[in-house]
Amino acid sequence: MKVQFSFVFILLLMMAFPFGSGYAAKYYISSETGDDNRTVEEAQNPATPWKSIAKVNIECNALNPGDAILFKRGETFYGSLHLSASGTASSPILVGEYGSGTKPILTSFQTIDKWKPLGNGLYESAEFLNTATVQVLLINGQRQEMGRYPNGNAANTGYLTIEKVETNVIKSAHLESSSNWEGANIVIRTKNWVINNYSIQSHSGDQIKYDGNISPYKPEAGYGFFVSNHLGTLDSFGEWYFNPSTKKIYVYLGEQS
Predict the structure, then answer these.
(1) Calpha distance 138→249 (Å, rounded)
(2) Which pTM does this prediction carry?
(3) Residue 48, Cβ neighbours under 10 Å: how many?
(4) pLDDT tens across 150-159, in order?
């Protein structure tokens, strides 16, 4: 089973640029033959390229107007390119490709192939993920839903009903028998056309207190909500949760693992 995660919801395909001899410096990157321990001078030779996007990001302050960053054709590079150096209108910093074959791919998707079973169909990534957030998770190429309570296919399209509202507090009898959701997110439909995502500050019995300062729209009794971004929500195949503190991702695979 192939599981991939992404911290950016964009797959970038590199564009071709014509590179002449007038560019100040060309930096070569190859995910297959590169080495990030090489110097800036070595990376300007296609025979001794750097390996990763992360190395480019580290060295980007050394870039000057007119420099070019070239990724090897036929290879895939993982991560997001962040350039802090600036070119000029007449001499931009260009990103392109070198070699032969298909266009290189820059993607934030990374494959996770080592998992630790926790029991009851739940799995934890064996290695730490080098990211602060995860926005997308694919299993065998199919996008999976972040864990939520209740599930999206439950009654009322997966929304619980708000029974009472106080300042930054909602109450619902459905919360009394559920997990403790402190630290999770609560997604509240405050209007028919407005859905807001808040951090849960505390949960006790039938009430949740949340950070409600992000929106002028306040919840009302009779509208719906659900809980997400918590390990306790994982009970349906493919549901996932990323813990930013431990840098581990959790997936519910059940008997289909």
Answers:
(1) 12
(2) 0.67
(3) 16
(4) 999 999 999 9
Strand partners, 143: 138
Whether 198 has a pLDDT exceeding 90, the answer reads yes
Nearest to 250 by CA among 36, 1, 2, 3: 3
- Spatial CA neighbour of 198 closest among 178, 177, 219, 179: 219
> Does residue 66 carry a pLDDT above 50?
yes
Residue found by looking up tokens 């809980």 in the block: 227
Residue appearing with tokens 């493919």:
238
Mean pLDDT (whole number) for 142-163: 93
Contact assessment for residue 146 and residue 230, using Cβ atoms and an 8 Å cutoff = no
Report the distance separating Cα 210 and Cα 93, nearest Å.
Answer: 45
Give CA–CA dist 136/119, Å, rounded.
Answer: 24
Please say whether the beta carbons of 136 and 144 come within 8 A. Answer: no
Element (DSSP H or E) covering residue 198: strand 194-204
Q: Is the C-alpha dihedral spanning 60, 57, 104, 14 positive or negative?
A: negative
What phi and psi values does residue 185 have, to the nearest 5 degrees?
Answer: -110, 150
| CA atoms of 25 and 248, how far apart (whole Å) | 39
Residues 65, 22: contact at Cβ < 8 Å? no
Place of tokens 């911290």: 7
4 pLDDT more than 60: no
